[in-house]
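Is this the right way to post C-alpha cells for a design question? Let me know if I should format differently. Anyway, here goes:
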C-alpha cells in the first residue's frame, strides 16, 4: 500500500537532525591552490595573494577566499577517493523527481594557510509546499558544517532541494 504524502512527511521529519560522521579533507589549506583560484577568477585581494601584506593584517596569514573553502574540505582529484564518503539517510518522499534549488554559504571564521578542514552534513528540515508541478512537493533542507582543526565552525553551506511527483504518480489513491 502506498503511503500518502502526509504520512511520508511524518516519517521524513523523524530524520531532521540526522548527521553524518565528520569527514576530514585530504589536504591542508595551501597557498598555491589559493593563488591559482585567484588568478583564474581575477581576484587580486592581497589577503589571498600577498604573503607579506597578509602577515601584517589582522589575520596574520594568507586566508582562503570564502568560496574556495569547499575545495579544501574535499578529497581532491588525486589519488581517486575510495567512494566511502558517509551520506545522509534517504528521505522518504512520494516523488522521484529532484530539483536542486539553492546553495547558500555563511562564513564565520577566516580559513588560513595550514588549516585542516573537516565537515559533516545534517538534515535541517523537511516540509511539503506545493509547486505548479505537484501540490504535495517535498522540500528538503540540508546543511554542511565546516570545521577547522580546532573544531571551530568556520562555514556552513545550506542546500535546498525539492522532490516532486510526475503527473502519473499524482493520480488519486483508491
Amino acid at each position: 500500500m502506498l503511503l500518502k504524502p502526509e504520512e511520508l512527511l511524518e516519517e521524513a521529519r523523524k530524520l531532521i537532525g540526522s548527521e553524518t560522521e565528520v569527514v576530514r579533507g585530504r589536504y591542508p589549506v595551501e597557498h598555491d591552490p589559493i593563488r591559482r583560484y585567484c588568478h583564474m577568477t581575477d581576484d587580486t585581494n592581497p589577503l589571498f595573494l600577498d604573503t607579506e601584506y597578509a602577515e601584517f593584517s589582522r589575520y596574520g596569514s594568507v586566508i582562503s577566499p570564502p568560496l574556495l573553502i569547499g575545495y579544501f574540505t574535499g578529497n581532491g582529484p588525486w589519488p581517486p577517493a575510495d567512494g566511502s564518503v558517509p551520506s545522509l539517510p534517504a528521505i522518504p518522499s512520494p516523488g522521484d523527481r529532484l530539483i536542486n534549488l539553492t546553495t547558500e554559504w555563511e562564513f564565520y571564521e577566516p580559513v588560513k594557510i595550514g588549516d585542516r578542514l573537516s565537515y559533516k552534513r545534517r538534515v535541517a528540515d523537511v516540509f511539503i509546499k506545493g509547486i505548479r508541478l505537484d501540490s504535495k512537493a517535498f522540500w528538503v533542507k540540508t546543511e554542511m558544517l565546516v570545521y577547522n582543526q580546532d573544531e571551530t565552525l568556520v562555514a556552513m553551506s545550506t542546500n535546498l532541494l525539492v522532490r516532486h511527483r510526475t503527473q502519473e504518480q499524482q493520480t488519486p489513491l483508491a
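Format looks fine. Someone answered above. Worth noting: Helices lie at 5-13, 31-41, 46-49, 51-55, 69-73. Strands lie at 23-24, 97-107, 118-128, 138-147, 153-164.
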